[in-house]
């Protein structure tokens, strides 16, 4: 679980998130907006995950637990899942990753997020953040110029910061990952599928 100071991260993101490339002065056309969701909006259980692409515990949940959650609950119409973006150190990794996922479009957003989580260890070990994200961008059908424009989009960064501030206020999020089920914070930090089973069962009663 990664705790953070929201004020520090908002300021740091504004100063550092675009460090992967010089600002192009262009906007990433077609960037997806709003909440990113999976599953039936009418499902009886509404689940929100607050997560950061630079959070190791978030990557663990995505890689080890989320596939079962999706198969067992989201794909069967039992859970409507919402992923909400947060920035944790190193903020330039999280911010660039989220900008990239948004630019890839709503239909490929979760595909890109998953690829970044699976490549997180590689990025942190090699230090080649830009190279890793560029590879993921290309796999999502983006050119290098489109990728550069995307991660240099100041309007996109402002929108990301605005979403983060709004979401932090809604549930007073202090750490990532944080899981909210039917409006109630049920866990901060690592969450197993057994814990999810219990929380979803309780919310379904």
Question: How would you describe this structure to a colleague?
Answer:
- With 205 residues, this protein is α+β, with helices and mostly antiparallel strands.
- It has one domain: Glutaredoxin, CATH 3.40.30.
- 54% of the residues lie in helices and 15% in strands.
- It has helices at residues 6-16, 56-74, 91-104, 109-126, 129-139, 144-151, 154-171, 193-204; strands at residues 2-3, 36-38, 45-51, 79-85, 175-176, 178-181, 184-188.
- The strands form two sheets. The protein has a five-stranded mixed beta sheet, sandwiched between helices. A two-stranded antiparallel sheet has the order 1-5.
- The radius of gyration is 16 Å and the shape is globular.
- Mean pLDDT is 87; it is low at 21-30.
CATH superfamily: Glutaredoxin
Gap between N and C termini: 29 Å
Write down the secondary-structure element order.
EHEEHEHHHHHEEEH
Range of helix content = 40-55%
Q: Treating each run of at least 4 consecutive H or I residues as one helix, how many helices?
A: 8
Quote the beta fraction: 5-15%
- Specify the biggest β-sheet: 5 strands, mixed
Q: What general form does the structure show?
A: globular
Q: Class by helix and strand content?
A: alpha+beta
Q: Under CATH, the topology is which?
A: Glutaredoxin
Q: At CATH's second level, what is the architecture? A: 3-Layer(aba) Sandwich
How is the largest sheet built, in terms of strand order?
Answer: 2-4-3-6-7
Care to count the β-strands?
A: 7
- Overall pLDDT metric: 87
Rg estimate, integer Å: 16 Å
Question: What is the domain total for the residues?
Answer: 1
Please report the first level of CATH classification, the CATH class: Alpha Beta
> Spans of 5+ residues with little confidence (pLDDT < 50)?
21-30
